[in-house]
Amino acid sequence: MFNNANRTFDQLRNYAVEKSAGEYLIFLDSTVKPENKQWLSELVNETIDNNTGLVGGKILDNKKRVLNAGMWFEFDTQEVHYTHRGCQADNIGYYYRLVLPQNVFAVSDECMLIKKIFLNK
Question: Which GO MF terms does the UniProt record name (predicted)?
Answer without folding.
Answer: transferase activity
